[in-house]
Amino acid sequence: MSDVRIRIMPKERHIVSLSGGKDSTALAIFLQKNFPDKAYEFVFCDTGEELPETYSYLEKIETYLGKKIVRLRAERTWDQFLEDFSGYLPSARSRWCTANMKIKPFEDYIGDDVVISYIGIRADENGTPKYPFKEHGIDKEGVMRILDESGLGLPDYYKWRTRFKWLGLKENHPHLYEKAKQYETSNKDGSAQNFTWIQGGTLEQILKDEDGIKRRHDQYETRVKRDKQKKSKRLIDVFSSELSFEDALNMEDDAEGCLVCHV
After folding, report:
1. pLDDT digit string (tens) for 198-240?
2. How far is C-alpha 227 from the chain's CA centre?
3. CA–CA gap between residue 169 and residue 159 (Å, rounded)
4. pTM beyond 0.85, yes or no
């Protein structure tokens, strides 16, 4: 009698990673509305230090989709990781929070299953990226239209994040701003802290000239609007290149939600 072995194929899963930002939210709505035959899993990598507006917006998304969003969290907290890195705060050059608190929990969640990741996110070799916005020609205006028609609109933090982010945090969430400032001034053991969120000084030093910051930002916005009239950057162009999971998480829209990522 021959030895017949049956090969069991890995399960194929369709995962939509939400950030609490406009683009990933619009994509979730678009996919569920236009391709409802897929058993989508909506996941959110939670650092535990997200803005209140982000958590509130996720609840609204759940209500609209009629489906729970899976919250993924690392086994260790932000403070514990900070201690592991000797008080070194995350920066554009070293986003240890992304690697340890977002990518690792996501990889643990998908395991060895075959995953189709939407928004062009590639978790590892067993993930297949999909670019629905690119495939269907949806640009930034299209994203805004999807959100408006759904009734969700933009997350509330968009009302103030267009300003210098740390100034917006100070004005809207002073307790979180003070918490961030504390990380710059002292370590858990009370010793002096040598790291700052922004290159060039502490938050207190940089935000001394609030009027100057607002003035420079207004000048910047005027320049951006002028440049947009010359050439518009479409969302479809953003998704025209291969993005890694980390790249997608660090995109401006998808990395603004948590206090940790305000760098």
Report:
1. 877 888 888 888 888 888 877 877 887 777 666 555 544 544 4
2. 26
3. 11
4. no
